[in-house]
Design brief:
By secondary structure, the chain is of the alpha+beta class. It has one domain. The protein has four helices and five strands. A hairpin with a 2-residue loop joins β3 and β4. It is globular.
């Protein structure tokens, strides 16, 4: 699961998102934490987002455990959060969702 928030208003092309995120051989050769750290940094850049993070469903099925987070131009400490009431809960339930920019 990959999420980005706080878009800075730059126009984006979702079709080129993954192409931009994987635009160099560097990301293809990385594994583990380094791979996800590169991915979140590139997602933030491509989306023009203040924060981008990648997480996985927690073992309890009610939370997301963040694997990597990039915000304000640097890596941040991973965290967990409760799914209840979040757009991610809808995605986990196989529902489409759109969160409007604020």
């Amino acid at each position: 699961m990959a999420l980005a928030r706080c878009r800075k208003g730059r126009p984006g092309n979702s079709g080129s998102l993954m192409q931009s995120a994987w635009s160099t051989d560097e990301s293809l050769s990385q594994r583990g934490a380094a791979f996800f750290d590169t991915l979140t940094a590139r997602l933030a850049s491509v989306l023009g987002a203040d924060v981008a993070f990648v997480g996985q469903l927690g073992l309890d099925g009610t939370s997301i455990d963040i694997v990597s987070v990039f915000g304000d131009g640097k890596r941040a400490k991973p965290f967990s959060y409760c799914l209840a009431g979040t757009p991610c809960a809808q995605v986990i339930a196989n529902e489409c969702t759109h969160t409007a920019r604020t």
